[in-house]
Specification:
- It is built from three helices and four strands; from the N terminus they run αβαβββα.
- The chain is α+β, with helices and mostly antiparallel strands and 146 residues long.
- It has one domain.
- It has a two-stranded antiparallel sheet.
């Protein structure tokens, strides 16, 4: 795999981690949302990743000659939780049913915060990988100068 292909792999990783972070923040923000435009409480969302081949315009010829293919990652789908919502007894709540129960989303903010930290660390790891590749490319150019 060429240095340019490794850049493409890291870019794909950064992209999916950004999407994952956006979905996790949305889940945390709506942890207590009992009414949505679709009706009912907010439904938790999860990101599903899938591997895919990535290529760099600079390394397509080299990779094809060496029969190498870099594998990156992409978001294949965003899954909406279909489980029954949590029911809490709150008879004075405006969204309470006839029995006084309110449907709340099945969102665990603590779990989503831990997942968000993981997404941030994965994003940062990809930034570090890009920085290392950039340094390798710069050193290669410096070697050709002398």
């Amino acid at each position: 795999m060429s240095l340019f292909s490794s850049l493409s792999v890291s870019v794909s990783g950064m992209s999916v981690q950004r999407t994952r972070a956006e979905i996790l923040v949305e889940n945390i923000a709506n942890a207590d949302t009992t009414r949505t435009a679709e009706g009912g409480p907010y439904r938790r969302r999860d990101v599903v990743f899938e591997s895919h081949e990535v290529s760099s315009p600079f390394s397509v010829l080299l990779d094809s000659e060496l029969q190498l293919q870099a594998t990156g990652v992409e978001v294949s789908q965003i899954v909406v939780d279909s489980s029954a919502p949590d029911r809490r007894y709150m008879p004075g709540h405006p969204d309470a049913d006839a029995d006084g129960y309110v449907a709340f989303p099945r969102v665990n903010p603590a779990e989503d915060m831990v997942d968000l930290l993981g997404a941030a660390r994965s994003y940062q790891a990809n930034v570090s990988a890009i920085s290392a590749v950039k340094d390798m490319i710069q050193r290669s150019i410096d070697l050709f100068k002398s």
